[in-house]
Automatic annotation (TrEMBL):
Signal sequence coordinates: 1-25
One Gene Ontology term from the biological process aspect of the record: cell wall organization
GO molecular function, one term: polygalacturonase activity
Highest taxon of the lineage: Eukaryota
Protein name: Polygalacturonase
Primary subcellular site in the record, as a coarse category: secreted
InterPro entries reported in the protein's UniProt record: Glyco_hydro_28, Pectin_lyas_fold, Pectin_lyase_fold/virulence
């Protein structure tokens, strides 16, 4: 992002450091913190005189909440994207209604394209405007933006999902068609999404695929606890994604990370209601790429069905999940605070999961559990979990007072080492 000449040089140098950092164990994005401040400036229109604004109102959009402004948003984006200078698309205060739109690059701007979003943008409620599905149409798609994107503001993207959740049949079908995500980022690099709010998506709030170097900062993602498959941020085949300072209250995983996901940092996130932080489901597709280098830290889970979770199907699709750290997490009345489940979705099947799970760390996990079995490590007989480390786990039972069962851990086919506080008590050796 370049607002003045000096800032342009600084940003280029910062991005170079991020993309070429060869230091082992370095936190991703440390060199790009200045870009977060720039994103905050964007939200209030604090940009340099060299940035040309492209306002959706100037391209015919109506801020009446009734007129379909889809084509006007697309025309505004194309004008900004094709401009041979620094550009900012502006969505001002007001209510806008749009159907499915695709904002596609490559763009010709010398620096990251800016989108200032301060209005209320609503999706068309009728599902007939969307085809959905993995190869179908989501609501707002950003694709092929290799030179970067800054999306910032205090605006709200309302998916009007309550009108369509009744069509979700994933609870009854293993091969269901997902409903449209509110935002999809595909083949997008060097991007910051800051400050915006997502409400009641039809499917996922945010979907990320085949992308790298993306920051999600200070987002507010909201949907009812019973809204189906409304994952907060769903990531696949992507690397170097950072999620921080976000509030996610939804009907499914707060963050879900599936095949081909590497180098993910989740920090200072409040999750709940929802299904927790989930690695998986894995083993769902043929030829899945491995998952590794995932860190979830300094976060709180409130009233979620799961806390720190890894889940895999019992299929013959091999892959690996390794180098995963859950650290400094607070559980507030969580049903399953710590869980590895390699029988997810098809427990009756005699097929063992072929996903190999190793080098998994649960450290400094505290709070309260709704379940008497607060730690569940159910691993594959074919590929036992190895290198699982439990350090300083301090949980208290706050569920039904008349449950006579002991507060405990349950381990199957898991090789676990323990240190520090362990409450509930560790699994018996050889479990």
């Amino acid at each position: 992002m370049a607002f003045v000449a000096t800032a342009r040089i600084t940003v280029i140098l910062l991005l170079f450091l991020v993309l070429h950092d060869g230091c082992v164990g370095a936190r991703p994005f440390d060199a790009a913190e200045a870009l977060v401040a720039k994103a905050k400036d964007v939200s209030v229109g604090k940009v340099g005189s060299d940035v040309k604004s492209f306002n959706v109102l100037d391209y015919g959009a109506k801020a009446d909440g009734k007129s379909d402004s889809s084509i006007n948003f697309i025309r505004t984006f194309k004008a900004a994207c094709n401009f041979r200078g620094n550009a900012m698309m502006v969505i001002p205060k007001g209510d806008f209604l749009i159907g499915p739109v695709i904002f596609s690059g490559p763009c010709f701007n010398p620096s990251s394209l800016i989108i200032q979003a301060n209005g209320m943008v609503k999706a068309r409620p009728d599902i007939s405007y969307f085809t959905g599905g993995a190869d179908g149409v989501d609501w707002i798609t950003f694709q092929s933006l290799k030179n970067g994107l800054i999306l910032s503001g205090d605006g709200t993207f309302h998916g009007q999902g309550a009108h369509t959740w009744k069509y979700n049949d994933c609870a009854h079908k293993s091969k269901c068609v997902r409903l449209p995500a509110s935002m999809k980022f595909i083949k997008v690099n060097d991007t910051i999404i800051s400050g915006i709010k997502s409400v009641d998506p039809k499917g996922f709030h945010i979907m990320v695929s085949v992308s790298q170097n993306i920051k999600f900062v200070n987002l507010d993602l909201q949907a009812p606890e019973n809204s189906p498959n409304t994952d907060g941020i769903h990531i696949s085949k992507s690397s170097k994604v950072e999620i921080s300072e976000c509030v996610i209250a939804t009907g499914d995983d707060c963050v879900s990370m599936i095949h081909g996901t590497t180098e993910i940092s989740i920090k200072n996130v409040i999750c709940g209601p929802g299904h927790g932080f989930s690695i998986g489901s894995l083993g769902h597709y043929d030829n899945e790429a491995d998952v590794s280098k995932i860190t979830v830290t300094d976060s709180t889970l409130r009233g979620t069905t799961n806390g720190a979770r890894i889940k895999t199907y019992k299929t013959d699709s091999p892959s690996k999940a390794s180098n995963i750290i859950f650290k400094d997490l607070t559980m507030d009345r969580v049903a399953n605070p710590i869980i590895i489940d390699q029988e997810y979705g098809n427990r009756a099947s005699t097929q063992e999961s072929r996903v190999s799970i190793s080098d998994i760390h649960f450290e400094n996990i505290e709070g309260t559990s709704e379940s008497k079995i607060a730690v569940k490590l159910i691993c594959s007989k074919l590929n036992p979990c190895i290198g699982v480390q439990m350090k300083n786990v301090s949980l208290k039972y706050v569920g039904r007072p008349n449950d006579p069962r002991p507060f405990s851990s349950n381990c199957t086919n898991a090789k676990v080492t323990y240190s520090g506080i362990q409450h509930p008590p560790p699994c018996a050796p050889g479990s």
